[in-house]
Amino acid sequence: MTAYGTERFVAATIDSVLAQTRTDWELIAVDNGGSDEMAAIIGRYLPDPRIILIRQENRGIRGGVTAAADAATGRYLCVLNSDDLLLPEYCERVGAMIETDPGIDAVGCDGELFYDPDDGTPPPKSYFASIGRRSVPDPSRAATLDEFLDEGVPLYIGAFRREVWDVHRGFDPATTDVEPDVALWLSAAAAGDDVRVLPDRLARMRLRPDSASRHPARADDFQERLLHSFHTVVAQQHARGGLAESRALREMRYERALRTARCSLLAGDVDAARKAARDAYRERHTLRAAAVVAALHISPDALRWVHPVKNTAQRTIERARWRISRVGGP
């Protein structure tokens, strides 16, 4: 577990590890920025010999995870963010799967998503739902590279045998142009490793406003790293053709193009907005993309005004539906 700027959440994360129904785990907590408050919070748990604290200068997520992996003594390695939560049966379920067969190299799973702060807007149903996965994973067979290209990779909170982690260089600090967890899953599948995926939601991920995937200023870089992860890993492993036809890649390019169109329009660059909208339509022939293309050519000023109003109305409707669902009716 690498920790930076999550002093408000890290205790709950550690508590979720302590609550595991399987108890033969080890938690390497890396204070990845020299925060005295963070060290003090984690320090309260150090009487438990299963919890180890490492303090270092901020070396980013890759440097933090690598330091934890180097210090770990277990047979399996699992990445945990310091604001996420494990469900009590995580270690038991994942451990049982990877120990069923010594030929199984890694095990992934689904997870619940929740907003923090909770403004009443319902989050996506699950991690798999958020990435548009259509099929239910079958843990009785190994996942394939084609499956990952088409459906997306499992949640980053997965378990890897140490030797598999080492072969694929884990969260390599020298590789900064990819999303390390995505690259790791893809590398394992491309190499023919036996990767199993449980359909169960065994962890909870906190969606914060400053998360890379939600923060407008960081979303483009995040999407670029995702795309590069797919392209780089497949090229390195000499996988068979068809990458350009990957549904997951098309979906990422589609969403990126629509976001670029929106940002360009709000910045007053109508030509760039039109080009991005056409790019989105080329990736996916949806009514949404077609409507944006048409509106940008007919009345871009009206579209600029409609967008924030539409978002506000949609959030209001979603919050109302969410509250009704919680109490069972109006």
Q: Can you offer a commentary on this structure?
A:
There is one protein chain. This protein is of the alpha/beta class. It has two domains: 2-229, Spore Coat Polysaccharide Biosynthesis Protein SpsA, Chain A (Alpha-Beta Complex); 246-327, no CATH class. Helices cover 49% and strands 13% of the residues. Helix 11 runs antiparallel to helix 12. The model is unreliable at 306-330 (pLDDT under 50).
Which key features would you list for this structure?
330 residues, 2 domains, 49% helix, single chain, Spore Coat Polysaccharide Biosynthesis Protein SpsA, Chain A, alpha/beta, three-stranded parallel sheet
Summarize the structure.
GO terms for molecular function: glycosyltransferase activity. The protein is an alpha/beta fold.
Residue share in helix: 40-55%
The largest pleated sheet is described as: 5 strands, mixed
Gap from first CA to last CA: 42 Å
Low-confidence stretches: 306-330
The whole-number mean of residue pLDDT values reads: 83
Give the number of DSSP strands: 8
- CATH homologous superfamily descriptor of the largest domain: Spore Coat Polysaccharide Biosynthesis Protein SpsA, Chain A
Task: Furnish the topology, listing elements before pairings.
Blueprint: E1 2-3, H1 10-18, E2 27-31, H2 36-43, E3 51-55, H3 60-71, E4 76-78, E5 85-86, H4 90-100, E6 106-115, H5 127-130, H6 145-151, E7 159-161, H7 162-167, H8 180-190, E8 195-207, H9 216-236, H10 247-266, H11 270-283, H12 287-298, H13 300-327
Parallel strand pairs: 1-2, 2-3, 6-8
Antiparallel strand pairs: 4-7, 5-8, 6-7
Helix pairs in contact: 8-9, 9-10, 10-11, 11-12, 12-13
GO molecular function: glycosyltransferase activity
Protein name: Putative glycosyltransferase EpsE
EC number: 2.4.-.-
